[in-house]
């Protein structure tokens, strides 16, 4: 896909135009709550096509693909049957999933929170199928950022985003956030070996809700969430009859990390460089 030159006069690409609120209000909400919902970034038909692209990726990829090659699938084994859980770096092998990161509306969201050159830290699809019993314990995303060595940069230089492909609510595994928990700093939530990462701990939730308001954002297809590395969040199993597909992309100021592929460099959205993806060791 050709590089996209960011038009400096286009409000969306400058990060000056977002639905419902001013960019400044979204920034203030992120600072206060640790997470913001941005509705209607993409249209329903665009998300229907993205859903199709997810199935296309599942069909065309294979178990031999490595994490950094794109299309690597993480499976859950239930009663001897394999359930697809996460697809890593699918934008490397699917044109429609790749095109989202080149869309001016998506660029505008990222530009609303990060300026200058930007790196991309993750790119993955979560499927969360009915009956897969998949859960994520309450955690802070800092645990996944091995490269962070300047704690002062955590809240100002990193964001995580998700695009809702399906409708998302509390019944199909919607992510629950604990508003303002990022201001408490590092919390002891997940074992150091991550042994309890994929098992929701209700006791931890009871402990957190005494201090922070728990909110599960209901999302329509095309809505986005943006959050920081320290806000506590987790999700329970999908108990509905609907899938809960989401498209996750994480970013940071290029100066905050010498690793990971570039997303925006010298005013251009650049193609993903798989050679810059660190080898997955855990």
Structural class: alpha+beta
Helical percentage: 10-25%
Q: How many angstroms separate the termini?
A: 31 Å
The percentage of residues in β strands lies in 15-25%
The gross shape turns out to be: globular
The tally of strands reads 14
Instruction: Outline the biggest β-sheet.
Output: 10 strands, antiparallel
Which CATH C-level class is it?
A: Mainly Beta
Assign the CATH superfamily: q2cbj1_9rhob like domain
In the predicted model, the low-confidence regions spanning at least 5 consecutive residues are: none
Architecture in CATH?
Answer: Sandwich
For the CA atoms, what is the radius of gyration? 18 Å
Q: H/E element string?
A: EHHEHEEHHEEHEEHEEEEEE
What value does the average pLDDT take?
90
CATH names the topology as Jelly Rolls
Please indicate the count of domains.
1
Task: Note the total helix count.
Answer: 7
3D structure, described in words:
The structure is a single chain. The protein has a single domain (4-270), classed as Sandwich (Jelly Rolls). Strands 1, 2, 3, 4, 5, 7, 10, 12, 13 and 14 form a ten-stranded antiparallel beta sheet that branches. A four-stranded antiparallel beta sheet has the order 6-11-8-9, covered by helices on one side. It has helices spanning 11-14, 23-33, 44-60, 95-100, 104-111, 154-157, 202-209; strands spanning 4-5, 35-38, 72-78, 81-88, 118-126, 136-139, 158-164, 176-179, 213-216, 224-227, 233-235, 246-253, 262-265, 268-269. A hairpin with a 2-residue loop joins strand 3 and strand 4 (81-88). The protein is globular and about 45 Å long. It contains seven helices and 14 strands. The two termini are 31 Å apart. With 282 residues, it is an alpha+beta fold.
